[in-house]
Write a structure and sequence with these properties.
The structure holds 2 protein chains of 2 kinds. By secondary structure, chain A is α+β, with helices and mostly antiparallel strands. Chain A contains 21 helices and 11 strands. The longest helix of chain A is centred in the N-terminal third of the chain and has 32 residues. Chain B has 4 helices and 7 strands. The chains are: A alpha+beta, B alpha+beta.
Amino acid sequence: MLPEIGQFLMVLAFCLAVIQSILPLLGAQRGQLSWMRMAPNLAWAQFAALAFAYGLLTYAFINHDFSVAYAASNSSINLPIEYRISAVWGGHEGSLLLWILILAGWGVAVASFSNNLPVAMSSRVLAVMGMVSVGFIGFMVFTSNPFDRLMMVPLDGNDLNPMLQDPGMIFHPPLLYMGYVGFAVAFAFAMAALIGGRLDASWARWSRPWTTVAWVFLTLGIALGSWWAYAELGWGGWWFWDPVENASFMPWLLATALIHSLAVTEKRGAFRSWTVMLAILTFALTIVGAFLVRSGVITSVHAFATDPTRGVYILAFLAVVIGASLILYAWRAPKVGMGGGFSSWSRETVLLANNVLLVVACSAVFIGTMYPLIIDALGMGKMSVGPPYFNSVFVPLMVPLLIMMIIGPLVSWKNATFKGSFERLYPVLAVGLLAAVVWPLAMGEWGLIPAVMVFIATGIVGAFIVDLLPRIKAPDLSSRIAKMKKLNTSWLGMHVAHVGMAITIIGMAMAASYQTEKDVRLAPGDVVELAGYSFTFKGVQEVRGANYSSLYGTIEIRENGKLLTVLNPEKRTYDKHKGMPMTQASIDRSLFRDLYVSLGDPVGTTGAWIIRVYYKPFMTWLWTGVIIMSVGGILAISDRRYRVKIKRRLTGRKEKNQAVVD
Amino acid sequence: MKARSKRLVLIGVIIVAFGAAVMLVLNAFQENLVFFHTPTEVKAREVAYDRQIRIGGLVEKGTFKREEETTTVTFNVTDGESSILVSYTGILPDLFREGQGIVAEGKLLTSGVFVASHVFAKHDETYMPPEAAEALKRAEEKAEATVQQATTKPTIVEKGE
């Protein structure tokens, strides 16, 4: 009975979304306030229906209701409770339901925080969000019903894919979806502004916080996926340029361009049509991502069971979204106007270059990802584009972009001079050059790539310091602190995010350039030396887990003869997936290096194993930098100007409402 | 410089930069495309020796060998028609097993041995790497085609279309 209610709720949500996409929009066009007022209620009702449906599906997982086909194929009796809850999004149908629920959640958030928007604008935004919901809920209702029943109820389920039985996997999909789906909001704002014909600085100010929040979630989601791959796949890598990774990275690149171009539109009124275009393309790329992951064109842990109708549905949806939004764009954008002019050297120029580079980088990734798929689809043979392509294109494109991160924040808007922009940077550049010589040497061997990256990272941090100092200059400490408290959080957020990037760059460059690894064959008692650490293999024993048995290795690590830590890499075999052993790497993390051990295969009869040991410097910096980047994003949107209007409005609610209806 | 000529310089710079980026992409693309070949094609020497290629198929039963005291392994990859000796040093993927579909990326030596730098197995029990499946399919189609060629010649012409 309960699963049928769940299915009913999904259909109900679909109908509500249809009404939400029509009524408020018509209301906004004809000035019908009562129709526009329906939008928030509809958004809430849709969210409630989906949340209830989601709850019912979770209930089926927790209570082992294997009559639900989706639960039967993704859960089992022995699956621990935390994985039973996360298994709800471990497969195609459930993760799609989560996706839609999050989309509805963003709708509710827009409905709740739009008091400072003209009613017509917020109604149009919610109507566009409704249309996006129609597309995705329709996808689920018509092709992927998570509540389908089985005629023969199995006694036990198939269990969750062992690869997904990892703590990192619990949070990776929700965070990533928060990001992905969040760009539907940026898209809805752009569409609403085009429909209303008002594409000005206030539009940019409204849509900026939403875009930044979505960007923060996407950043964290990607990083968590990478973290999981690092710990779980046992290859010691953290980025593989896998199509599925690219599916999330392409929208990230464009979204990064979008938040920078929104800054220009808000501050200077320039780049308006370009910003709208980026919002459209970013959203389109999230749908492309959904296609790559859900259509079965690629095989990976993310690629769910193949069903051609799904791929066709998403492609059709993508075509409708791109087609409709581009037509609207072509019709309305020419009326938008150019906005403020700027000279050839100004903050605008730097941000323009930033946008060009990010878009080119995104296109390069797109070509590398899609080309093999297209060739294959056309039946012209099979080929692949590997990491060497991406690395050899991506790094040269990123270097100028990263260098601009040093200069950009110090270039003034509209009209700047080279002298004025660089003057304050001379000491920073000097320190950067020094660091570029010394730091890589301290790592053992000087190399061009780490040196360039060190120079950039030091430069970014230095630019922050020289930009900060004049702002907090004061005769005594207490007034300096007072000035610090008054710092513009949006400005601070930018710098913090940039510093986060600098720290991540160091992590990437150092780990990539100075990691050492050994694949060795070790019998119990054997010792292998790596980067000044000695690893003693103590053998492997069998251990039983909740729903798996594990070959549990023990490796002692010593530094200068002193026991540092004991690592326990595992090889797990899950009861329901006997043919699919899982490697669990074991990592000792510290501020300056990770020691990483994973088990390969057993060899011979002496209890010897092939074991892979890694020394990876500065890995912790990579993850820490990402967190700091996100903090920067949050700081940027906590700026007072995004809230100030709400307060003002609370005092004069009545009069304003009348005034703002278009 | 006047504002106008400044703008021209800016546009020029953008065009040059953009051209450079396109060059970079195309060049890298040319160099790093990894083509896929079946063991039969490799055996017939229809492949390049100097670049990375991928081969796919099943790990032939009874051919897996591990060298003493090192981490090097050798095995044959077959598509049912021909098999190729593959040598690989390092840790094999979890789902590597005799009789299973795998894909190996690496270079072909003139001796005919394929030295793999990466070995990919399927990601879980239910799927085979698409390239491995493709190799088996091609070999099967070829076998069918030869059988038909031997018996009914005229039909094969139509089939070739």
